[in-house]
C-alpha cells in the first residue's frame, strides 16, 4: 500500500478512511509540520518517500511553475463538494490506478476532483 503524508488541510475522516484501506498515513501534525512552508512539507514527504496529499492549491503553481518545479509526488484535492467518503474512495482508486507513476522516479502531480483526475509530469529537459 501507499505511503502518504497528509497536509494539515486534509479532513481527518479522509485520513481515517485511507488508513482503513490499508495505507501508511502520517499527518502533518504527527510529522511536526503544522505551519511549515510548502517547501518544507514537500521536502519532508520526499525524504520519507511519501506521497503528499493536500488541498492546498498553491502546490499546483509552485510545482508547475515555481521553486518546487520538478519535485515530489503530490495528489492535489480540488473537490467542490466535500464528501469525505467519496474523496477517500477516489484517492484510493488513484493510488491503485496511478501506482506506477506514483512509485516511479519522475515527479508527478495528480489533480483530483469529482470523478476526474489530471496527471501532470514536468517535461524533461527543464
Describe the structure.
The chain has one domain: Rossmann fold. The chain is built from 5 helices and 6 strands. The radius of gyration is 13 Å and the shape is globular. The termini are far apart. The model has no long low-confidence stretch (mean pLDDT 89).
What is the CATH topology descriptor?
A: Rossmann fold
CATH classification class: Alpha Beta
Share in β-strands: 15-25%
Q: With helices defined by DSSP (H or I, 4 residues minimum), what is the helix count?
A: 5
CATH architecture: 3-Layer(aba) Sandwich
Averaging pLDDT over every residue, what do you get?
89
* Largest sheet strand order: 2-1-3-4-5-6
| Rg of Cα set | 13 Å
Shape: globular
Largest sheet: 6 strands, mixed
Distance between the termini: 32 Å
The helical percent reads 25-40%
Based on helices, strands and strand pairing, what is the structural class?
A: alpha/beta
Low-confidence stretches: none
How many beta-strand runs? 6
Total of domains: 1
Return the string of H and E elements.
EHEHEHEHHEE
Topology record:
Blueprint: E1 3-6, H1 12-20, E2 24-27, H2 38-47, E3 51-54, H3 58-64, E4 73-77, H4 84-97, H5 99-103, E5 108-113, E6 116-120
Parallel strand pairs: 1-2, 1-3, 3-4, 4-5
Antiparallel strand pairs: 5-6
Amino acid at each position: 500500500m501507499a505511503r502518504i503524508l497528509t497536509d494539515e488541510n486534509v479532513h481527518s475522516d479522509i485520513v481515517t478512511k485511507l488508513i482503513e484501506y490499508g495505507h501508511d498515513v502520517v499527518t502533518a501534525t504527527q510529522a511536526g509540520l503544522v505551519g511549515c512552508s510548502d517547501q518544507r512539507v514537500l521536502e519532508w514527504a520526499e525524504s520519507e518517500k511519501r506521497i503528499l496529499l493536500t488541498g492546498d492549491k498553491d502546490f499546483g503553481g509552485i510545482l508547475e511553475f515555481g521553486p518546487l518545479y520538478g519535485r515530489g509526488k503530490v495528489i492535489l484535492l480540488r473537490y467542490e463538494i466535500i464528501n469525505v467518503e467519496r474523496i477517500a474512495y477516489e484517492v484510493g482508486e488513484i493510488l491503485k490506478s496511478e501506482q506506477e507513476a506514483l512509485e516511479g522516479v519522475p515527479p508527478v502531480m495528480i489533480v483530483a476532483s469529482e470523478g476526474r483526475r489530471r496527471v501532470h509530469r514536468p517535461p524533461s529537459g527543464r
